[in-house]
Write a structure and sequence with these properties.
The chain is an alpha/beta fold. The chain has a domain of about 240 residues: Rossmann fold (3-Layer(aba) Sandwich). Strands 3-2-1-4-5-6-10 form a 7-stranded parallel beta sheet, sandwiched between helices. It has a 3-stranded mixed beta sheet with strand order 7-9-11. Strand 1, helix 1 and strand 2 form a beta-alpha-beta unit. Helix 4 runs parallel beside helix 6 and helix 9 crosses helix 11. About 45% of the residues are buried.
Length: about 350
């Protein structure tokens, strides 16, 4: 892909910051809009300090005037839309923020992008893209023997989070079919890797294990997810941005279905090797009350992305999870800076009620 100017929303979050770092490495210029709510972390972008290829803007996608100003001033080749409230448990405890950011925020962004796109010269209109990053959770839940989600799987969201993302997906689709805005959408499976906020399963278990704290497993631990290393996801997004079909949807998966309990046991085995304690780390595993509406299984069929764009994940789960554990061991200060204040109160409120 030739170097482009990209307006990235949510580029200080987990996936967004990994994408920004990779896009800059590949020669693109990034205008990074992030509200820096609980999951946004400017420290993720410390290596870009002073880099003219990265401009950080502290603000919200709900601020239509700000978004319009950025579009006019920077004339980006594409908008890459990561910004979202994304944690299912938080959506259960407080759904209003998910409706506001994921639905109203996406609407505000689409309105600004449409107005900007319409005002562009014809040649620039043809090159402009709006890439919407979504989730496999919009498809609902699978039984053990059902085929994996594909791009034509009907939407059946089961949580306020997934329902709000489904609504945003529909808005993006509507702006293509109604107004012609050149959009593409990606629906990814569970991501893991560096810079993930430590309330998610993998970083939470790593942090608790090295701290000697309980490893809380929801229900029976048999829920299945397809795990995608974040660098592979970023590579897929750049591929879709370059050559994805307008109005199209592409599922992005890691081809790594794993049960939650197996994930935790694997983490414990790696930590027993890399960060040994006085006893095996799996002795810290404890079972807590399941969360409401906990989807049993997700699985992604990403053959369309492989077939049309030649993309495939580079990391196996074995290689990706070892890299992830090692990163968290090497970046303990990054974790400790986060695991304080509001985060500790959230963990207390979420898990103490399940014990």
């Amino acid at each position: 892909m030739h170097p482009k100017v990209l307006l990235v929303t949510g580029g200080a979050g987990f996936i967004g910051s990994n994408f920004v770092l990779e896009a800059v490495r590949r020669g693109h210029k990034i205008v990074n809009l992030d509200a820096l709510t609980y999951a946004g972390n400017i420290d993720n972008l410390a290596s870009l300090a002073g880099n003219p290829a990265h401009e950080f803007v502290h603000g919200s996608i709900l601020d239509g005037a700000l978004v319009s100003n950025l579009l006019t001033r920077h004339r980006p080749d594409a908008v890459v839309h990561f910004a979202a409230e994304s944690h299912v448990d938080r959506s259960i405890l407080g759904p209003a923020a998910f409706i506001e950011t994921n639905i109203n925020g996406t609407f505000t962004l689409l309105e600004a992008a449409l107005k900007h796109w319409r005002a562009l010269p014809e040649a620039e209109q043809g090159n402009f893209r709006f890439l919407h990053v979504s989730t496999d959770e919009v498809y609902g839940s699978l039984t053990a023997d059902e085929p994996a989600f594909h791009e034509e799987t009907p939407y059946r969201p089961n949580s306020p989070y997934s329902a709000s993302k489904a609504a945003s997906d529909h808005l993006v689709r509507a702006y293509f079919h109604t107004y012609g805005l050149p959009v593409v959408t990606t629906n990814c499976s569970n991501n893991y890797g560096p810079y993930q906020f430590p309330e998610k399963l993998i970083p939470l278990m790593i942090h608790n294990a090295i701290s000697g704290k309980p490893l809380p497993i929801y229900g029976d631990g048999q829920n299945v997810r397809d795990w995608l290393y974040v660098a592979d996801h970023c590579d897929a997004i750049l591929s879709v941005l370059q050559a994805g079909r307008l109005g199209g949807t592409y599922n992005v998966g890691g081809l790594n279905e794993q049960k939650n309990l197996d994930i935790v046991n694997t983490l414990c085995e790696i930590l027993d090797e890399l960060h040994p304690a006085g006893a095996p780390h799996n002795q810290l595993i404890t079972y807590v009350k399941d969360r409401p509406g906990h989807d049993r299984r997700y699985a992604i069929d990403c053959s369309k992305l492989q077939r049309e764009l030649g993309w495939a994940p580079k990391e196996s789960f074995h290689t990706g999870i070892r890299k992830t554990v090692q990163w968290y061991l090497d970046n303990a200060k990054w974790v400790e800076k986060i695991v304080s204040g509001e985060y500790r109160e959230w963990i207390k409120g979420n898990y103490s009620a399940r014990n």
